[in-house]
User: What shape does this take?
Amino acid sequence: MKGLLVVNSFIKTTAFDELYSSLERAFFERNVALTIKGNAEVLAHIGFDAGTREKYDFVLFWDKDILLAYHLENLGCTLYNSAAAIENADDKGRTAIILNKAKIPMPPTILTPLTYPAVGYGDDNFINTVIRTLGFPLILKKNKGSFGLDVYLIASRQELIGKLKEFAGENMLFQEYLSGARDIRIYVAGGKAIAAAERLPQNGDFRANFALGGKMRSYNPSTQELTLAIDAANALGLSFAGVDILLPKGGEPLVLEVNSNAHFKGLSEVSGKDIAGSIAEHIIEDVKTRKKL
Assistant: This one.
């Protein structure tokens, strides 16, 4: 068995290199060769023969180049995660709609109405509804973004209008700010919760993302929290995912976000779990099952 790991050709950092190496090693230890190629090496050739393509039993798609993902599926490749699942998770507004349909609880959320950069929000009466519903402070975040970037804690109407004008034309959403809520991440692979940790913000930041300096500590999730993480990943069609859950004071757990290609080094270290190995084992077993069908 051999697989292809598709990564982004233009993001070159130690953190990403370490992640790719851990996945390559996990498959090697299970006698599966994993070739790493950037998305610029696996171009989507449309409408003409690009020559002989090397055959792989699976593609581990660790990028958000969604058009390339769909193209590879059209060529008959089996992707982990699938193109549709990545698209579901990569757009926070789309995630919210899908999770709501699946009756998976989230913080109260309102999606911004569509406008265009050159048009802006001439009629901003909808802001009154947002403020009346969610109050201040509230969270404003772009639908697409990772590592806690493009997530803002908004304290006033003036600040909110300023951000909306700044980002007019981009899809965004508003969420209720749950002060004092604990933040946990649960990693799911193959329909099983395999690792968990509590995320702790640092230096007065309201965001607990590891990439922004947040810390992690071991955490023993409840059965309810484990089930919630698995259900969220399944609802979005994800083979593996990092699911972020908020634990409000005195309230029920809520799914905050679901990440299709979540970094897992810190979580592996804190939890003592081999996340790369769990991902590899799930994909290998799934490929074997598909071949028997």
